[in-house]
Amino acid sequence: MTKTFEELGLSKPVLDAINELGYLTPTPVQEQAIPLVLEGRDVVAAAQTGTGKTAAFMLPILDRLPKAQRLSNKGRVLMEGPQGPLCLVITPTRELAQQIDGVAVAVSAQTGHRTITVTGGSRYDAQKKALTNGVDVLVATPGRLIDLMDKDIADLSNVQVLVLDEADRMLDMGFWPSVRKIVRQLKQERQTLFFSATIDQDIMRTASGLLSDPAFVQIAARGSTAEGVEQYIMPVEQSQQVEVLAELIERYFQGSERILVFTRTKQRADACYMRLSRMGYNAQVIHADRNQRQREHALEDFRAGRVNILVATDVLARGIDIVGVDGVVNFDVPSNPEDYVHRVGRTGRAGRKGYAITLLGPDEITPLREIEYLLGKLIEVYDLPDFPYRSGRIVPNPNRPTKRQAHTLFRGMSGGRGRR
Ligand code: AMP
After folding, report:
1. Is the CB of 52 under 6 A from ligand 1?
2. Which one of 112, 224, 295, 311 has the largest count of C-beta atoms within 10 Å of its C-beta?
3. Is the CB of 55 under 6 A from ligand 1?
4. pLDDT tens digit string along 378-396?
């Protein structure tokens, strides 16, 4: 029996915030993590984006976090307290930082906390002023936070709660030396919450020095995808990819408000986006070469339903926190199997139904098998009825090996999470 938010021990202002956010019942990670965080325990949680993990840490933190000193613009003390921030959240990307900011601001509106989010690309002076005048929660990407520390703008000596969000991603993206440098500035007596899509020995070795007697929260097994998502592969020859994509949209996604299309590279994202636009679709594109304003606009338009198709690369997949994505189309099979799980996790969120369709090129059978091995199951093949498929595509054998048989097949292959 799922507990209610009240039963988890949250206070009235936070319950009001939950009401405002429109959450009815806690998700599994929230049900498990919230009481532990309220108790003051260190927590290691294996939970992917889409499981409600942001609220799982933000709600209980703001429930118990004291308030920092507030100064007026002229430096007069408006409210006594320690120099903020008192809570520090480190996350790998701007998009994730903004998502966390959204939840923190919504809850703070009820609890009276102040939150600031600092990421690369935004202006220093406003951030400096906010930090000096008093802030309770600082959400930051590692690079920008190091900049602020080097400039003596951020004083982290009073941080009581540290959150490391998407720790595995930070490790993969090479942020760990920065994270270590930041953590060295914090006092030992603090609460540390460690969130990661996957928890393996590698991650635990890296984390162990940061945590004290942590409690473990394990939600989805490694490589599992949301239950409400129907997944298919669609074999297609390279030159027909865009045609098949357009046909899919016409036949199955008519009336869909939001479709996410993933490509392997920025160039392919641009090319796919341009073809779709030329065909008259209301599409946008985001990848690492688009500037922050362009990315924000694209995401905002997509969120608001002004744009129906968003073409994206994997780098940004985790940051896309949009409810109501009807379908995910993998224009390319991701070369890292775990990226598949993250892509597919963009749809079917919070209990809704979703579709994930992977176009399978003739040279993509190997990465497909790696994905199926990770999932522990085969993904069903689906062909568009009466579509003039050109020869050259490879339709995988429907009786291809299952996970158990694949075990021998995959020996010698890299398997798990590749360090990039
Ligand atoms: P996250 O795992 O933090 O990326 O959250 C995934 C999505 O689930 C976000 O869009 C949240 O707004 C939504 N969400 C989080 N908690 C709940 C809840 N208890 N009920 C319904 N939706 C939720």
Report:
1. yes
2. 311
3. yes
4. 899 999 989 999 988 988 8
